[in-house]
Amino acid sequence: MATYHIETYGCSSNRGESREIERALRDGGHRPADGPEDADVAILNTCTVVEKTERNMLRRAEELSDMTAELVVTGCMALAQGEMFAEADVDAEILHWDEVPSYVLNGECPTVTSDAEPVLDGVVGILPIARGCMSNCSYCITKFATGRVDSPSVEENVEKARALVHAGAKEIRVTGQDTGVYGWDNGERKLPELLDRICDIDGEFRVRLGMANPGGIHGIHEELAEVFAANEELYDFIHAPVQSGSDDVLADMRRQHRVEKFREVVATFDDRLDHWTLSTDFIVGFPTEDDADHELSMDLLAEVRPEKINVTRFSKRPGTDAADMKGLGGTVKKERSKAMSELKMEVVGEAYESMVGETHDVLVVEEGTGDSVKCRDGAYRQIIVQNATDRGVEVGDFLTVEVTGHNTVYAFGEPADETPSDAAGVDDAGRVPGDD
Q1: What is the CATH topology of the domain spanning 3-104?
Q2: What are the boundaries of each domain within the chain?
């Protein structure tokens, strides 16, 4: 597993984001290092309150860059003034905080331990449906920890999901190393049946399917798309990591799909669903990737236009076959990552911009920064509602919002039935709530 070191500066919001990053890394099987010198990657969560703070952040970034193999910078300064790190010749990947885990995980499958049980976190229920993986990717180290796929029965997983709903879950996240191969170890492909059965549980809730490799879901993609179309409880969202647009590179990665299979999965969901979100991953700078391979990946991204994209610079994991390959230079990987990240922001920003003025039914899934909440629409796109307390909006609520703006990777919305005075938290008599 990779080791990480994380440092956080600034407000409680930054500290909360760092906790989320760390939780995702631990869930992925990674562990904290004793210090930055011992870490495979250092993560700097920055603040940018005043000029002195900016200087301190730049100095600390320079120090960490010299101490560790790889540096990721996130937080307020990274998003507002990310160019300052490049101007200071700091070799770092600048990312939004929720992109950090997927970047550090290096395109590997999440790690689910053998004793993984459902977890209720707020109104979100985490349901691991199986452990292990059918793949043998040349760059992935998590396969050594997880082994081959081991799938409990449909009935067992449905009962676990029912227990989560009865305990208060409003969103069930179906997880696993590769959810698409659920049931393969027992000779049957059971994912469509499982999702159908979970959606049939009494209650008001939503279901999000976790990562499914294109090779795993290709043989069931038509049946799976029909299940999505038939069940409004399912978010119309698929996370299918393609990793490269080049068949040659996919072969060297030992991925169990080629680009055409990925395209066929996408086309099937395009045909069955009015609107859905495609999430995918790309690894840039794999040792055998040349300029032409990189352009094929860029072309594929521009063609399918996923609404959520994780871009990872390849890094070697000890003990994997890819670790023995002659790697590309850091400058090449950085340039390719920068080019793809710029295209990613264009594609994702375009998707969220197109939502402005639309009305969407959403579920409030968790608290956001300040007095805001994070909501998910039917395609699992994130919509932020601000001034939640004044508006009487709470985690677990289902409501209708009008999208009023966007910030590249998420949208802003307001409850569709509120009046201007509602939005300001003031009643018709000019009083604020609680002012008796």
Answers
A1: Rossmann fold (3.40.50)
A2: 3-104, 119-353, 359-423
Residues 345 and 434: their CA atoms lie apart, in Å, by 42
> What CATH number labels 119-353?
3.80.30.20
Tokens 């170890």: give the residue. 185
Token pair in block for residue 244: 């490269």
Least confident piece of the model among 8-12, 266-270, 353-357, 396-400: 8-12
Residue with tokens 């639309």: 358
pTM (predicted TM-score):
0.76
Question: Mean pLDDT over all residues of the chain?
Answer: 87
Supply the pLDDT for residue 29. 63
**b/e string for 412-427 if b means 16 or more Cβ within 10 A?**
bbbbeebeeebeebbe
pLDDT, greater one: 177 or 242: 242
Closest Cα partner for 123 from 419, 433, 340, 397?
397
CATH topology identical between 3-104 and 359-423: no
Model confidence pLDDT, tens digit, residues 308-337: 998 888 877 777 888 889 888 878 988 999
H/E stretch holding 146 reads helix 143-146
For the segment 285-302, the average pLDDT, to the nearest whole number, is 97
Which of 354, 343, 433, 418 minimizes the C-alpha distance to 385? 418
Instruction: Tell me the C-alpha to C-alpha distance, in Å, between residue 215 and each of 236, 340, 370.
Output: 20, 23, 41
| Burial category of 434 from C-beta neighbours within 10 Å (exposed 0-12, middle 13-18, buried 19 and up) | exposed
Report the distance separating Cα 213 and Cα 182, nearest Å. 11
Give me 216's structure tokens: 């795993």
Query: Cα(397)–Cα(411) distance, rounded to whole angstroms?
Result: 18
- Which superfamily does CATH assign the domain made up of 359-423 to? Nucleic acid-binding proteins (2.40.50.140)
**Taken in order 166, 170, 175, 179, is the CA torsion positive or negative?**
positive
Residue in the structure block whose two tokens are 């859905």: 276
Neighbours of 105 (CB within 10 A): 23
Three-class SS of residue 13?
Answer: helix
Show the 3-state SS of 255-272.
CCCCHHHHHHHHHHHHHH
Instruction: Pick the range with the lowest mean pLDDT from 60-64, 109-113, 385-389.
Output: 109-113
Band of pLDDT at residue 17, cut at 50, 70 and 90? confident
- Residues 382, 362: Cα–Cα separation, whole Å: 9
Integer angstrom CA distances of residue 192 from 1, 157, 237, 264, 269: 32, 13, 14, 18, 14
Strand, helix or coil for residue 9: coil
* DSSP class per residue in 79-95: HHHTHHHHHTT---EE-
Task: Name 237's bridge partners.
Answer: 277
